[in-house]
Amino acid sequence: MSRPPPAVLDEGLYAELDRLLVDADRALVETYPGDVAGRQPVHTVYVPADQVSAELPARYGAAALSLVEKHDLAGLAASLGLTDRTAYERMLAKLAREPIEDLRVDVEDGYGHRPDDEEDAAVTAAAVALATTDATPYWGLRFKSFEPATRRRGVRSLDLFLATVLDCGPLPDGFILTLPKVTAI
Predict the structure, then answer these.
(1) Total domains present in the chain
(2) Which of 90, 115, 134, 173 makes a 20 to 30 Å CA pair with 28?
């Protein structure tokens, strides 16, 4: 294996970068001190707002279990020499019990541009569906960005979603908002 070429940047540049970024580094540590304690979702499912319902996680779980059976994943595991069925059984139980850990109502790229009344109705219905069930432990909204072209619509969807959720009760643990396409803070 050949050696990499010698570095061309002076060591002083690295020190200068550290000096210039010291305030940003400090703010990052103060604002985000590390991973939160406890459970964190292993995946997030983004679903267009007009397709969200209280039954959606169960439907996803049933579809996944059907695919496991259809494609004989147990047989595949056995053919690969994976004879301990513990992980397989745990996967089946997880798909039956909690197929979606984090469901994000999407009114951004996955939803597209719709008339205001249509998006208002979808956002409100999705908020009610999720706020009145415990089908998934983490959930929230991915709203349109605050870029000029979508800012008003993004804020309106956020406002309607939050107002509807709060009308159903307090914000639950595991409630998450996703602001896409952040370009500056």
Answers:
(1) 1
(2) 173
